[in-house]
Amino acid sequence: MIIMKFGGTSLSNAEQIVRICGIIETNLSRKPVIVLSAIGNTTDELLKAGRAALMGHIDIDPIRKDHEQIAIDLGLDPYENNFNQLFGELKHILTGISLLRELTPKTNDYLVSFGERLAVRLLASYFDKKIAPAAFYDSWDIGFITDSRFTNAELLAETYENVAAFFSKPESDQTKIPFVTGFIAKDRNGNITTLGRSGSDMTATIIGAALKADEIQFWKDVSGIMTMDPKLVKNAFPVRYVSFDEASELACSGSDIMHPRSINPAKESGISVSIKNSYEPDHPGTNIVSELPKDRNLIRSVSCKKGIILVDIVSPRMRGQYGFLARIFDIFSKYGISIDLVATSEISVSLTLDHKEEIDGLRKDLEEIADVKILRNKTIISLIGDVEHSSIILENVFHVLKDNKINVQMISQGASKVNISFIVDDDEAEDSLRAIHEIFFEREGLK
Ligand code: ASP
Ligand code: MG
């Protein structure tokens, strides 16, 4: 059995849906379980409709028309798909929001749940009519249960057993291909919750782990994880294999591969994950595996995050003192600002923030205990790969950046030992990436 997860951007119109259903059809012998996100940008549209309702304006037409048009284009009768009932319910919620002029996280989750609920009904109905018997499920029907942290709920451990038990029961009807809602679940009180934006990935890996699937496939519109962002470096190409740890680091350091939290369930159960391209289904894409093949590059992939703030904090009083770092981190937590990278010496700490808001208060508090320099417009470049060979990697990076007259301003190596990150100026980011791509991926010998 395999899990096939399709994201919203691969489900934006009838043509894409037909293509995806064709891909599912060619995999029927592997007994696929399908996990779907909301169609196109429906989740954002629902959030927008919620904000409009807060101002007293109720309008479900854009979402309704999009879905009805796709149904018509797919040759379906839109009134046959329980759409009316769902749109009626959606209108009620928006009316409630507009009357109360209140949109709580709980209502917000209820509101966005319509995206995934509409998607599974639409696709299962098309698949069932045109290809093979199919059934749709809201994830709570198959046993998904979370805590009540609305908008970012945590799955309860019993979900695994529930899902496994469900699919071994007769009512799961093994003859039908299941289409399951990603992203949404319910808490113990029956309230709808969500797993956080992009949470459908999590639904897919949880089902995969619960059912001990042979493979979990993420279908996208690129052929897997790329060596670098092809928009920045035109020679970038897809990476064949990455390890689970490397995938986690990549997901956290700005690559849009999958939801960072969704990697763990697959890693723990040792199920191979693949990232594949729905426009090129025969391309092998990228496999995320427990054991990497022997013959491989030093670096798997390089990610970058622009517009970062670098904070340099220097205090000679720090030397030999305990509690100094704790005080610094306390100040950051007081302002609710999260830190990405850290590098320290005996008397100084450098930190990076991915923070758009004002940091004057933070700066003032820090200045009470140290000298502080705030530097803006920086880029974090993260090299993900075999950091056991960090000396060779660093030697080559420094060499090539020096040749390009680019100054490295901070370095940090994560404890996971697969990530070396460093900072350059924003306007040097692209040159740095191109130069690094050239030596690590376009030349023979750096293995
Ligand atoms: N539809 C939800 C979102 O846009 C969940 C997902 O796409 O995974 O965040
Ligand atoms: Mg989405």
The helix tally amounts to 13
Q: What is the chain-wise order of helices and strands?
A: EHEHHHHEEHEEEHEEHHEEEHEEHEHEEH
The CATH topology of the largest domain: Carbamate kinase
Shape: globular
Q: What hetero molecules are bound to the protein chains? A: aspartic acid, magnesium ion
Overview of the molecule:
Helices cover 37% and strands 23% of the residues. It has 447 residues and is an alpha/beta fold. The protein has 2 domains: 2-221, Acetylglutamate kinase-like (Carbamate kinase, 3-Layer(aba) Sandwich); 299-442, VC0802-like, CATH 3.30.2130.10. The strands form 3 sheets. Strands 3-5-2-1-8-10-11-9 form an 8-stranded mixed β-sheet, with helices on both faces. A hairpin with a 3-residue loop joins strand 13 and strand 14. It binds aspartic acid and magnesium ion. The site of magnesium ion has 4 residues, from loops. Magnesium ion is lined by residues 8, 37-38, 43.
